[in-house]
Amino acid sequence: MHGADPRLVLGLHRSRHHRDILTAALDLGVTALDTAAPYLGFRSHAVLAETAADLLPKFAISTKVGFFPGIGGAEHSLDPVRLRPAVERAARELGREPDTVLLHNPELSLTGLTTADGLALLGNACAALADATRSGLCRTWGVASWDTRSLAMIQVDDLPSPDVLMVRAGFLVGIDLLDVTTVLRTAWQVGETWGMSPFGSGHKAMWEAFDPRPFLRPRHGDLSRMQAAFRTAFHLPTASAVAVGTDDPRHLAQLVQALGAEVDTSAVNQYLRTLHTLRQS
Fold it and tell me: Does domain 8-280 match CATH 3.40.50.300?
């Protein structure tokens, strides 16, 4: 068995939640698991407990709240009256308290609001998760945002500071979003940054045309393009962990192998400078 490496988080967004991928993860030393209340048709927590109750204590589990079953599909809400019971429900369905609870895509409820109204709504939601943490319903709390631009427009330094900020990471993230995330996490005094979706979705042609291996030190030239893209995603933006979804143990093993590669940070910095130059031209 490999030594545990919490930098790789097994994401369950599109996963079938089969037990075999969880056991494979543990065998590879992957001990962090990320899910959310709406995954698998709002059944993710319950299915995990049904199929792998004995394995869950071996993982650090993060989940997300903010989406709720609604007429015709899921509805989004930052109402603290709904968020607190959602955290309690997650713990009850999992059969244990999650290690981290994240506010799921809060920007969806902030769009179109005035700055003052957005500040009040987000502030109350953050306070609800911070209170849930103090009450022992989870160990840490944070925010998972697909698009941080609306969050950056709010004076977040007046709000509770999240332990974790989870954002999109990797070469498919534009420079505007990378810059906004950097500003936001500094202003908000975020504890840790986690990345997600380093390969995007529906962009297979991009990885056939673009080779990210030059962003690794030369001695890692034997890694694949996908491995190089994953490893470099920890620097776009700088993140202590990156969540990746897969149901293929072989793919997961390749990503674990990529963790040992060293990124050429000078190449990454040059890449970022080039993106800034192109934006200004």
Answer: no
